């Protein structure tokens, strides 16, 4: 396996790796047809095995505080995508990608990395094992069907929503979970790179 900088020639493999990796997670329906481009500078890496993309990581980072991330202490990098092909999981590919990103981020003067994930405990645990700490959480709420969509109104005449999803950061979490069938906790995690630098 070799870790390389992303190149557009890897786009098809990048998309396939991401969708297959996400199928077994709470992001199973978050499918992309094109790889994202970022407004700010980014670190984009792929893990290649026998000409196949088997892992990937994308981090968009700041040159000024709060351009991309939500933290308040220095410049951050947001992990938008981190995935390992199912046939290559548990081989520490994700860890290798993360460590390479951390080294590059430190070189660029970043002080922390930020990541957000839904309520797959194994994903949250993976981040914790890699020294990320949870800093915030809110709900992703998916709505469809007549009983759930009665809570959503359109201000445009003749436009009737039939499916939607929303963020909820209020105090009545239990009520939201009782009202809607598909609700995920979205957890924000942070890793201080100045701490990692001292290790």
From TrEMBL:
InterPro entries: Acyl_CoA_acyltransferase (IPR016181), GNAT_dom (IPR000182), N-term/lysine_N-AcTrnsfr (IPR051556)
GO molecular function annotations of the record: acyltransferase activity, transferring groups other than amino-acyl groups
Domain N-acetyltransferase: residue ranges: 1-148
Pfam families per UniProt: Acetyltransf_1
Protein name, UniProt field: N-acetylglutamate synthase, GNAT family
Organism, as annotated: Virgibacillus chiguensis
């Amino acid at each position: 396996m070799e870790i390389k900088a992303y190149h557009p020639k890897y786009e098809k493999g990048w998309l396939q790796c991401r969708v297959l990796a996400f199928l077994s997670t709470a992001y199973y329906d978050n499918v992309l047809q094109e790889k994202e481009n970022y407004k700010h500078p980014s670190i984009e890496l792929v893990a290649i095995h026998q000409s196949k993309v088997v892992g990937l990581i994308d981090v968009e980072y700041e040159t000024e505080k709060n351009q991309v991330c939500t933290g308040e202490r220095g410049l951050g990098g947001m992990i938008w995508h981190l995935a390992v092909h199912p046939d290559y999981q548990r081989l520490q590919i994700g860890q290798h990608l993360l460590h390479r990103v951390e080294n590059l981020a430190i070189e660029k003067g970043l002080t922390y990395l930020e990541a957000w994930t839904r309520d797959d405990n194994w994903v949250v645990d993976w981040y914790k094992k890699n020294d990320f700490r949870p800093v915030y959480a809110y709900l992703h709420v998916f709505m469809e069907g007549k009983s759930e969509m009665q809570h959503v109104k359109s201000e445009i005449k003749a436009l009737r929503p039939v499916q939607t999803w929303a963020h909820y950061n209020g105090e009545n979490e239990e009520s939201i979970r009782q009202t809607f069938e598909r609700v995920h906790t979205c957890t924000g995690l942070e890793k201080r790179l100045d701490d990692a630098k001292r290790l």
